[in-house]
Design goal:
It is a single chain. With 220 residues, the protein is an alpha/beta fold. It has a single domain, classed as Aldolase class I (TIM Barrel, Alpha-Beta Barrel), CATH 3.20.20.70. It contains eleven helices and eight strands. An eight-stranded parallel β-barrel has the order 1-2-3-4-5-6-7-8, surrounded by seven helices. The longest helix is centred in the last third of the chain and has 24 residues, at 196-219. It is globular, with a radius of gyration of 21 Å. The N and C termini lie far apart (51 Å). It binds erythose-4-phosphate. Erythose-4-phosphate (E4P) binds at residues 6, 26, 28, 107, 127, 129, 131-132, 163-164, 183. Erythose-4-phosphate (E4P) is lined by residues 6, 26, 28, 107, 127, 129, 131-132, 163-164, 183.
Length: 220
């Protein structure tokens, strides 16, 4: 299962990149708009910091412009994944870029039919927006389950990446439902490590070990 953080904040990326199991960084136009540098510079900096894939989402309107925008970004990324918005133009751009050997992701996926089209267009990844589906009163988990099932039945190689995740338990659900990847805000990522019982247990072990060593010292 691949793990990504969904951020362009360089401090967060530096901290997360210290963990060797991080597979890369995903971004989107909203995330990049919070930075004060041009997107290509931000993406190039992220690429320097991360030993993994860097995802960039195009914001052009036509397939041709999406392809040009993608190729410009690919020039500054070692292991690029180009995110394309679901739709006719995005699918055509996905097909063309995938044929050129560039990893693509169809994003803004809210239905199984969209996920099927993305797989047929050659997308390496597809992003169902779990949290935003839940917000509308439907089940994002059910959507993941159905897409995973259809991909298995149809033997599509496209990987499902759970996106728009809102809490640590979402990550567990994605793992159980068969998503091959997850992307999450830094806050969720850093929260995955922690459990109060781990802290209590660790303090107890440290305390007992210290007392044991002091006892041995006093006997020698
Ligand atoms: C994924 O591709 C998106 O960048 C992201 O997961 C969207 O999350 P949000 O719904 O919390 O904005």
């Amino acid at each position: 299962m691949e793990f990504y953080i969904d951020t362009a904040d360089l401090k967060e990326i530096k901290s997360a990149a210290e963990l060797s199991i991080l597979d890369g960084v995903t971004t989107n136009p909203t995330i990049l708009s919070k930075q004060n540098l041009p997107p290509k510079e931000v993406i190039a900096e992220i690429n320097e910091m991360v030993n993994g894939k860097v995802w960039y989402q195009v914001s052009s309107d036509t397939a041709q412009d999406m392809i040009s925008e993608a190729l410009e970004m690919v020039s500054v990324i070692s292991r690029p994944v180009i995110k394309l918005p679901m739709g006719l133009e995005g699918l055509n751009a996905c097909h063309a870029l995938s044929k050129e050997g560039i990893d693509t992701n169809m994003t803004l996926i809210f239905s199984v039919s969209q996920a099927i089209l993305a797989a047929k267009a050659g997308a390496a990844y597809v992003s169902p927006y779990v949290g935003r589906v839940n917000d509308t009163g439907w089940s994002g988990y059910q959507l993941i389950k159905e897409i995973v099932s259809v991909y298995e039945t149809q033997k599509f190689n496209t990987k499902v990446i759970g996106a728009s995740l809102r809490g640590t338990h979402d990550i567990v659900e994605m793992a159980m439902l068969g998503a091959r990847a997850v992307t999450m805000p830094y806050k969720i990522f850093s929260g995955l490590f922690h459990h109060p019982m781990t802290d209590i247990g660790r303090n107890q072990f440290n305390h007992d070990w210290k007392e044991y060593k002091e006892k041995l010292m006093s006997q020698s």
